[in-house]
Amino acid sequence: MPRNPDSFSSVFDPRANGLNFVRLFLAAGVILWHSFPLTGAEIDLLPLRQLLAEVWVDGFFAISGFLILGSWMRDPHAGRYLRARILRILPAFWVCLLVTAFIVAPLATMTFGMGNLTYVVKNAVLWVFQYGIDGTPAGVPFPGVWNGSIWTLAWEFLCYLLILALGVTGALRHPPVVPVLFIICVLGIAFTSLAPVEIWLVETAARFGSMFLAGALIWQLQDRIRCNRNFVMLSILLVVGSLWLPDYRLLASLPLAYLMLVIGAVIKTPRLRLRNDISYGVYIYAFPIQQVLALAGVWTLGVPGFASLALAITVPVAAASWFLIEKPVLRYKNQSLRRAPASGDGSEVREH
């Protein structure tokens, strides 16, 4: 039994929670942020830029860290774990690549050639090597990029592999391992934010590692972490105050992860406890849809109108991805787990 009646584990219902709604909200936030560069708008104020540009994806990584560590700890089987992660992320991603290369780009720009094929082949293993297709999209505020969102998926999968490596080596049996790795990532953030030159690889690894491990750390300490108004207010103050730092994650990695997970835990409205998770589809399809809108001149509406129309178009596309691709594939994944211990949280199909 949890030590505290208001501990996170007491408040969070693993079978009925609002994490899918939180992730959908975060995906909508990504659309809002991308609407600035895709319409040629600028955000000069550093705190506002960090808030709009970073928080959404960081929140995704925090929630993933919480769910993925929990998944491994419930069923520490390398084959089943890796199979589940591959089926969750790759099939829908491959379909998105094909749709972008052979439907969206040809119809929007009349471009069809080897570049369409190489766009799929070069990006098929999640690491993005080709952003445009034969110079398209062109004539838009953000040219040469069909999908500026999917580059983060490789880092997400690397985080999955980190948990796998820690699991198979037995490191996760030692509680200090996760907090130590988290501290190392925060130190990496401190180093790169103060370094005189940009070290993109270290900076990005520290960013995503800190957020993913923050979520994992909350899973590890969920019986001890309190879930109450005072801690929520303190976390909000830390996140907002840290926006004036060169990298807000220096102080806010753990508070932001806490906020994302607590919001998901305290949502009680049944309509917001979404059983279907379309957030992944929103994330991977929004950018090419926004570029098509930009090609049509919709970027002249400005950020609010552009973002609203993009969201309205992306949601049904994401729903189609969920019901036609993701959910059927995940049923197959669950069949492969019949002999595995029960997850106990009903969220296997919602892990990213």
UniProtKB/TrEMBL annotation:
PANTHER family, per database record: ACETYLTRANSFERASE, ACYL_TRANSF_3 DOMAIN-CONTAINING PROTEIN
Molecular function GO labels: acyltransferase activity
Domain called Acyltransferase: residue spans: 18-319
Protein biosynthesis is among the record's keywords: no
Protein name (Swiss-Prot/TrEMBL): Acyltransferase
EC number: 2.3.-.-
InterPro entries membership: Acyl_transf_3_dom (IPR002656), Acyltransferase_3 (IPR050879)
Top EC category: transferase
Transmembrane segments: 20-36, 56-74, 86-108, 150-169, 176-194, 200-219, 231-246, 252-270, 282-300, 306-325
The entry's keywords: Acyltransferase, Membrane, Transferase, Transmembrane, Transmembrane helix
Organism domain of life: Bacteria
